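Lecture notes, part 5. Sequence design as translation. It can be helpful to think of inverse folding as translation between two languages: the language of shapes and the language of residues. The source text, in structure tokens, appears below.
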């Protein structure tokens, strides 16, 4: 893999910005609602955003200085004045409206109206919530950390969540958010976004309190497989113990596996079959046993 090396000190900020955003992606979007001292609503999206603590519940987003003229945004001004913000999430249903709200309208213009979104009163803070957003978080701003004074420099806005509002429609029978119903959008580099639902959203289950065997414990003939990918090997390395050889031999009672085992290219066939099992994701231990059968083939 040929790599390009970039020195942040020698590249134009606008170019570094795009390389960073294209590399650190997808990023969640904070649709930040604020209000100024005259009661004017402001609504703007920020993708330098994430959750950083559950107790206390802390969200952090950054309102950067504009690269073009080093000015700051209305969101930052409003938060500096009243230390309150509502962070609304952006799902697929409102992503185009969010894009309209990103336009740099004059301070007195209400982005709720421009974007066709409905402002609803918050319970504990002055800024309005976005009715159409499936999750809205009322926040008190704990701190603002200025990272620089040049174009592109960020202001980390550290927000404590004082109340959440979540649509019942996105909560499943386990009392958890269903990502497919939430249908969130993520921001990537340039004008690219990603929709976080459908077949590209899948679980990766890995016990973290129990000790997995790791890559170093995999037999060499498995680790050097010409068929298995790094992800496949990681599935095997995530098991808590290596299957016993005698359990692998039991698989030969299965006529289809026995037929593969007796072929001249048995090792290749068994590795392909194991990969099918791993890609399906349900019989990882069986896949390991199938691979053990191919050791001496």
């Amino acid at each position: 893999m040929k790599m390009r090396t970039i020195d942040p000190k020698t590249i134009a900020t606008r170019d570094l910005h795009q390389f960073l955003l294209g590399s650190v992606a997808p990023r969640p979007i904070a649709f930040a609602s604020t209000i100024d001292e005259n009661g004017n609503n402001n609504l703007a999206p920020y993708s330098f955003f994430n959750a950083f603590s559950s107790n206390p519940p802390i969200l952090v987003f950054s309102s950067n200085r504009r690269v073009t003229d080093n000015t700051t945004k209305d969101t930052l001004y409003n938060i500096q004045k009243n230390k309150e913000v509502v962070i609304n999430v952006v799902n697929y249903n409102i992503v185009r409206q969010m894009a309209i709200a990103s336009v740099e309208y004059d301070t007195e213009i209400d982005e709720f109206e421009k974007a066709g979104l409905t402002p609803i009163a918050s319970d504990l803070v002055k800024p309005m919530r976005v009715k159409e957003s499936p999750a809205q978080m009322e926040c008190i701003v704990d701190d603002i950390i200025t990272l620089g004074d040049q174009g592109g420099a960020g202001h980390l806005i550290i927000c404590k969540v004082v109340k959440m509002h979540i649509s019942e429609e996105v909560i499943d029978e386990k009392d958890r958010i269903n990502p497919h119903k939430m249908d969130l959008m993520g921001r990537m580099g340039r004008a690219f976004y990603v929709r976080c639902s459908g077949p590209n959203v899948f679980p990766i289950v890995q016990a973290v309190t129990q000790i997995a065997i790791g890559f170093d414990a995999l037999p060499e003939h498995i680790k050097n497989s010409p068929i298995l990918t790094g992800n496949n090997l990681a599935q095997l390395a995530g098991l808590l113990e290596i299957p016993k050889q005698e359990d692998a031999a039991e698989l030969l009672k299965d006529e289809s596996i026995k037929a593969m085992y007796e072929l001249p290219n048995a090792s290749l066939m068994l590795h392909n079959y194991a990969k099918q099992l791993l890609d399906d994701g349900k019989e990882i231990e069986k896949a390991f046993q199938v691979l053990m059968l191919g050791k001496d083939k």
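The translated text above is only one of many valid answers, since several sequences can fold into similar shapes. The mean pLDDT is 96.
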